[in-house]
Structure formats: structure tokens, C-alpha cells
Design a protein that fits this description.
β5 and β6 form a beta hairpin. By secondary structure, the chain is an alpha/beta fold. It folds into 3 domains: 177 residues, 3-Layer(bba) Sandwich (FAD/NAD(P)-binding domain); 119 residues, D-Amino Acid Oxidase, subunit A, domain 2 (D-Amino Acid Oxidase, Chain A, domain 2, 2-Layer Sandwich); 106 residues, no CATH class. The protein is globular, with a radius of gyration of 22 Å. The protein starts with a strand and ends with a helix. Strands 1, 2, 8, 9, 10, 11, 17 and 18 form an 8-stranded mixed sheet that branches. The chain is built from 11 helices and 18 strands.
Amino acid sequence: MKDLDVIVAGAGTGGSSAAKAAANAGLKVCLLDTKKRKDIGKKICGDAIGRHHFKALGLKDPTSDEIECVMEGIRVFSPDRQTSYAVKGEKLYGYILNRYRFGQRLVKEAVGAGVYLYDETQVLEPIIEEGFVRGVTAKDRKTGKKVELRASLVVDATGFFATIRRKLKPELDIETSVDNKDVEVCYREIRRLKQPLDEPSLCQICVTHAITPGGYYWIFPEGEDKVNVGLGVAMTKGFPNPKEQLYKHVISQPLFVGSSVINGGSWFVPTRRPLDSMVGNGIMIVGDAACQVNPIHGGGIGPSMIGGSLAAETAARAIEKSDVSREGLWEYNVSYIRKYGSKQAGLEVFRILLQKMSDEDLNYGMHYKLLTEEDLLRTSMGENIHFTITEKARRMLKGLKKISLLKRLRSAANIMREVKNWYENYPTSPENFEEWRTGTKEIFEKANTKLTE
């Protein structure tokens, strides 16, 4: 195909959203995916998304056949399960999706907007000429032949494996790898229960390093007698097998006696702040490939749609100006960081805190409310945690046996505020980017040090 404006690699939520928005802006768009069209949308996923994402993007809410369950909030359990908080709020109200049907809707809307869909097409690598990404080479899985596709701009939406991003040259100045410590390896199953759930509108989460080092396990309702149950662990040296941990510690709970498996599988999630820069000459990155995932719970459906839509808006303006250079695409970095990326960066600090706390600390902190429902709600919405003088005194009295924990909680709150302020000053052009990136690295190094003390 000749005269393409945009090639989008990957027809997940981010890629389909980017392709549709770019086509609606009048661009000639090609969308590539390794799956057959009828299989697009089949993905191992937590399936949860907040309703606020649909409002923010001006999208119609999912239809009834795209929803497994309406969720009103999250119940967070301490490691010993003796304490739990029911955390509710507007931004925690949302849906457990039928991921397949929702994915099929998105790709159908993209094709309906005029996008050319090449299914069963495996992207192999970017075409880089004179410092610009000019297209991709791909394999037509139906014929086994290699094809070369060229366009003014390429969007990498190939998920965690980031097929294009990982093969970019250093001069494009985009991170090509993600540290294993910032990756969760997960296993999940959809299970039919023999008994109804007590709280079918609340998602359950339990953070316990003894079972899920660096991660958590979840039980998300999909109606009264069906659940999405899974477990994630940080992909650090010697990490345990998540499926084995799930069966040993979660499926063994009374809730699952007599339950049956509908389907299951594994996947990887990058649980860190977004890439410091998601653009280069002729290239933009969206979705999991850009680390556009909530660092606490790993939810990426909403952020990927935000990233895809914002990338398309910038692409349309850049192509109209005939400037798809890094400078011409920089606006995407700025808009995403302001809309969602600064929140993710703050949540990465909170993730570091949780990973550094022992199960004993987590049990104590929740039992004595050194960490409260309000703290979790504010944090989930990307807001700062504020301690009044009275509140500081109350927590100090309750935390006398855990002064080091109280200090870490205060340090985390301070660093989260520092991160938010720093990200609010994200450079509006590449000119001051290197200085900003250096400062960002220093802040997160401080977080890793201070939250261990």
C-alpha cells in the first residue's frame, strides 16, 4: 500500500484507539496485528477499567454485552487478611469488561472510520533511514512472505514486547528496554464458582510479599458466580512461579472449593512511570509499549486509550505541518504527561513504598490506620496525601512501635509531592529534556533509598 500517513502496529486498545482517531482526523491509516481479525481482543488481562476514562475521552460507555460486572470500588486486604478497607470513589467506579467483545468493538470502529486492517501480519522491525523511522518490515502470516510498509509516521502499540521500540537506534533517544524490577509477571484464570460472592461489586486485592513478592493477588467479580482471579510478582531474580503461587495460596481458599476453570494464561505488565520520552523522528509509542500502565494495580486499558487518542491528535497536526521530527511530535509527550503520566509517576513512588514494606509493616499499618482508606483513595486518584497537625499527632501515637514505618510513610508522601511538581514542569520542547530526565532519575533513586530506611 502506498501513500500511507500512519502505520499503527498492534490492534489492542491503544493501537485501535490511535488508528481510529487518526483516520477520523483525515489521515490514511494502516493497522497491523498478528492475530486473525476474529481473534483481536483475546488477551490475558485483569479486564478492569474506570468509567472516568470513557468520560475523559468522550467515548460511549461499554454496552451491556461488553460488561461482565459493574464495580463500585476495591476492598484491600492486609497480608494476614485480618484488616480490610473498602475504598470507593468516582474514579474507582467502573467496569469489569468482556475484553474480547470490547476489543472487537474497538477494531470494528477503527475499520469503520476508514482504517486499513492487515490482520495476521507480524511486525518484524522498523525501517530507519537518515535518522527517521520510515516504516516497518512485516511478515504476512497467511502467505509467509515479507512485506515492507512505509508511511510518514509509525506508532508502536505492540504491547509489553514493544517489537519496534526495542529495535530503535540510540540516536532516536527512546528507552529501548525496561528494567525487570519494573515488570510484573502474572497468571490469571476466569473461574466459575459454586457459591455467590459476598460483595459482587467490589474488586478484592491483597498485597503480601510472602505470597506475591513485589506484587499482589486479586479476585475481580464477573457477576455473582464468576471471577477473574490472578496473581502477579515482580520479575526480580529468583521470583516464584505465579501460577504455582496462585494455586497454593489463593485457589486453595474456601471460596474456590468446587470452582471450575473457564480459561487462564500468563502475561507481563510494565509497572512503572511512562517512558521519559515517547517520541522520536517518525515514531510514537503508546500503551504498554510506552509503559502507560497504572504502577499500583497494573491497569492499562484506560491509559492506553488515552495515549492512543493523544498520539493521533499530535500526529494529525504534525503531518499537516509536514514535520514528523522529534520536535514536531513532542506535543504528545507533554499532553500525555499532563493528562495521566504525572499521576503514574507519583504512583510509582507509592509502588516502591509498598514493595519496601514487610508484611508485618503492612499488617500493622493497616490495623492501626497509619495508612487509611482516605490515603488509598487519594493515592488512587493521583492526589497528594496531606497530614494535618492533629492527624500527624494521631498517627505518631499509633506508630510509636513502628517509628521507621511512620517515617517512610511521611517520606513517601513528600516524594510523591516532589514528583508531581517535577512532572508539572515537563519540558515543552526537547531543548531542556536531558536536564529534566537527569532530575527524574535522581528523584526515583532517592525514593528507592529513602523508602528502604
